[in-house]
Design brief:
Elements lengths: L4 H24 L18 E3 L3 H9 L7 E8 L5 E3 L3 E10 L16 E6 L5 E3 L6 E4 L4 E10 L13 E8 L25 E3 L14 E6 L2 E4 L6 E8 L11 E6 L5 E3 L5 E4 L4 E10 L13 E9 L1
The structure holds copper (II) ion.
The site of copper (II) ion (CU) has 5 residues, from strand 5.
Length: 311
């Protein structure tokens, strides 16, 4: 059958337009996954909103806990300890003015007070039952840092002195994330997973951090945000040896979403951002001085995390 040239050209044009539209959609949000392609394309416009009412309600329901001043100590690993093998046991001692604050996961809701545990500059792991050690598994050989601080069920950290602790330690004969956990002799262990809290860690090594110098510790957001948890999303961080401009100091925390414009946080408190579109996003936090210059401390003061939003 003969197709008139006009229709042929029109058809090709449509195909080209469709292809172009597809490409544009992809490049606008390069990390959009297949499951989120149904989302109408559009620019994301984020706004800082006040502390959400559901968190205000949760604070009220917790009595005095929000005024607690937890004091954490890292009992293990000891400062500058060398750990033989790839499993690092973390033991913490919690004291201070707790006002009823105690880490624990409610089995019904899967939520509760918990400690944020950060190996090197990886995303934190949540640690709930602190009467038992937390295991960092498959930790690679070499020098590492461990940072911990107490947090609330909605992941906002307590920001009092003494709540943040950091130690440096080393691992000898460490793990390899691509291999199963093995014994010293190289045999696969019969029961590699004890009934303890813990996590297989990604490969990383510790930064050359000076604990006496300004240090920005990225905490939230991380991971996957679903449904009502995906809007708004909280940014939260820990700050050591540095005061922000709005708190009478000279530093600022600069943040950028999806590589966009730099915005500044001048008070040490969380913010909530509303307006996320589905897909993958990056969140970058940097500590900068009064002139806007990055303040380096072992590479930890500039952190990018990828998160996934699925509303
Ligand atoms: Cu948390």
């Amino acid at each position: 059958m003969r197709i008139p040239r006009f229709f042929l050209a029109f058809g090709l044009g449509c195909t080209a337009m469709l292809l172009t539209a597809g490409c544009q959609q992809t490049s606008e949000n390069a990390n959009t996954t297949a499951t989120t392609n149904a989302t109408p394309p559009g620019a994301q416009s984020l706004t800082v909103i006040p502390r959400p009412q559901k968190i205000i309600d949760a604070m009220k329901a917790r009595g005095e806990q929000d005024d607690a001043k937890p004091a954490l100590k890292i009992a293990m690993p000891a400062k500058n300890a060398t750990i033989n093998g790839s499993t690092v046991e973390v033991k913490l001692a919690l004291s201070g003015d707790l006002k009823g604050y105690m880490p624990h996961k409610d089995p019904a809701t899967g939520k509760g007070n918990h400690i944020h545990v950060i190996l090197d500059n990886q995303p934190y792991e949540a640690y709930y039952e602190i009467n038992q050690p937390f295991e960092l598994r498959n930790v690679t050989e070499g020098k590492h840092t461990l940072r911990v601080f107490a947090s609330r069920p909605w992941h906002e950290s307590y920001k009092n002195d003494g709540n943040f602790q950091m130690v440096e330690f080393s691992v000898k004969g460490g793990g390899d994330a691509s291999k199963p956990t093995t014994t010293k002799d190289g045999q696969t262990m019969a029961s590699p997973t004890p009934a303890r809290e813990g996590k297989d860690m990604a490969r990383s090594s510790g930064g050359n951090v000076d604990p006496a110098k300004p240090l920005l510790t990225y905490s939230r957001p991380k991971g996957e945000y679903k449904d009502q948890d995906a809007d708004p999303i909280m940014i939260d961080f820990w700050l050591s040896n540095a005061k922000l401009q709005g708190d009478g100091g000279q530093y600022r925390v600069r943040y950028s979403i999806d590589g966009g414009d730099a915005k500044f946080l001048d008070k040490w408190e969380p913010i909530w951002l509303s307006g996320w579109i589905n897909g993958k996003h990056t969140v970058k936090l940097d500590l900068v001085d009064k002139d806007g210059n990055p303040v380096n401390n072992g590479g930890y003061n500039s952190t990018v995390r990828e998160i996934t939003v699925a509303r």
